[in-house]
């Protein structure tokens, strides 16, 4: 698959390794009585995939629109690629909004040529880039068809190509996976990972935790306009104690259900998923098992991002109620 379109420059990647692609400092936005974004601060490292996560209405799209200068913050500071304005960094930026918009009567090649020329691309660059990108996303056979002839998923992929045709350093994608079937979802994820490996910075918003868990290097969880938590997935998961243990044992395991530190047990052959009571000690459980059955495997199950999300958003909503 021709990923040479955006292979990047390794020296540039090295130079930018310690930079932040975007800095948000105490950014706020209010619409009437609604505080859509509330003193939000974050630093988005260059060369990473960074997820803006949160339930619908959390403030993700408003934050992205402020980064893009579509909306102006009431207070706070936004820095993009070392510049104080998106206008100063626009040539290095690709943006795909949540509300898709393509010229439906134009042919695919003509549309990409038009958008590419607006973004300052030369004819020679367009001649190389357009067929490579269309081949990459599986639209090569649709080059001379009108946009309106494409299915919704195809138009979604074309919208992505429109966003990246000029090989931007920074991609900002608002709900980029909506409307994609599983095959094209994996295709787009693979492209984003390769772009990240080539030194690009990718920001995307989603309310689907499984997507972020598989793709993001860093995560920012927003609820009601406020930052709830941010960091790497490993840092976030390590901060929360799991109350589930998986174990593979040999012997009579019926006694486990009656242990005071055990809430419930799910059995699949010799493998057990054990939910612990509040404040139970996993090491105490392990010692108890070793004393009565043969333990072949024992692992504390790390909480999923979905479980952490439900826990944190629930806590946040309880505080505000």
How would you describe what is shown here?
- The structure is a single chain.
- The chain is an alpha/beta fold and 321 residues long.
- Helices cover 35% and strands 28% of the residues.
- It is built from 11 helices and 13 strands.
- The protein has helices at 10-15, 60-67, 86-89, 108-118, 123-136, 152-164, 182-197, 209-215, 233-238, 282-292, 305-320; strands at residues 20-31, 34-45, 49-53, 75-80, 93-96, 170-174, 201-206, 218-223, 226-231, 244-250, 262-268, 271-276, 294-300.
- The strands form 3 sheets. Strands 5-6-7-3-8-9 form a 6-stranded mixed β-sheet, sandwiched between helices.
- β11 and β12 (271-276) form a beta hairpin.
- The longest helix has 16 residues, at 182-197.
Give the arrangement of secondary structure elements.
Elements: H1 10-15, E1 20-31, E2 34-45, E3 49-53, H2 60-67, E4 75-80, H3 86-89, E5 93-96, H4 108-118, H5 123-136, H6 152-164, E6 170-174, H7 182-197, E7 201-206, H8 209-215, E8 218-223, E9 226-231, H9 233-238, E10 244-250, E11 262-268, E12 271-276, H10 282-292, E13 294-300, H11 305-320
Parallel strand pairs: 3-7, 3-8, 5-6, 6-7
Antiparallel strand pairs: 1-2, 1-4, 8-9, 10-12, 10-13, 11-12
Provide a compact summary of the structure.
The chain is built from 11 helices and 13 strands. The protein is an alpha/beta fold and 321 residues long. It is globular and about 75 Å long.
């Amino acid at each position: 698959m021709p990923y040479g379109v955006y292979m990047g420059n390794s020296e540039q990647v090295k130079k930018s390794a310690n930079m932040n692609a975007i800095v948000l400092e105490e950014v706020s936005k209010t619409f009437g009585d609604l505080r859509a974004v509330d003193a939000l601060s974050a630093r988005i490292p260059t060369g990473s995939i960074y997820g803006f996560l949160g339930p619908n209405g959390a403030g993700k799209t408003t934050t992205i629109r402020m980064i893009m200068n579509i909306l102006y913050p009431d207070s706070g500071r936004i820095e993009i690629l070392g510049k104080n304005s998106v206008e100063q960094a626009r040539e290095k930026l690709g943006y795909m909004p949540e509300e898709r918009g393509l010229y439906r009567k134009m042919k695919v090649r003509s549309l990409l040529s038009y958008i590419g020329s607006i973004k300052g691309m030369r004819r020679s660059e367009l001649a190389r880039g357009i067929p490579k990108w269309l081949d990459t996303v599986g639209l090569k056979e649709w080059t001379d068809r009108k946009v309106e002839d494409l299915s919704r998923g195809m138009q979604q992929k074309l919208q992505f190509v429109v966003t990246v045709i000029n090989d931007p350093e920074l991609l900002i994608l608002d709900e980029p996976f909506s409307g994609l079937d599983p095959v094209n979802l994996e295709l787009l994820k693979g492209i984003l990972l390769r772009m990240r490996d080539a030194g690009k910075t990718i920001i995307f918003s989603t309310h689907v935790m499984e997507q972020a868990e598989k793709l993001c290097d860093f995560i920012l969880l927003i609820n009601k306009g406020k930052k709830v938590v941010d960091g790497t997935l490993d840092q976030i998961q390590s901060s929360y104690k799991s109350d589930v243990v998986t174990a593979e044992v040999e012997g009579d395991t019926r006694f486990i259900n009656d242990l005071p530190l055990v809430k419930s047990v799910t059995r699949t052959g010799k493998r057990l998923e054990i939910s612990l009571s509040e404040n139970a000690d996993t090491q105490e459980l392990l010692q108890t098992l070793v004393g009565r059955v043969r333990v072949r495997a024992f692992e504390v199950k790390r909480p999923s991002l979905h479980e952490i999300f439900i826990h944190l958003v629930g806590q946040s909503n309880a505080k505000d109620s």
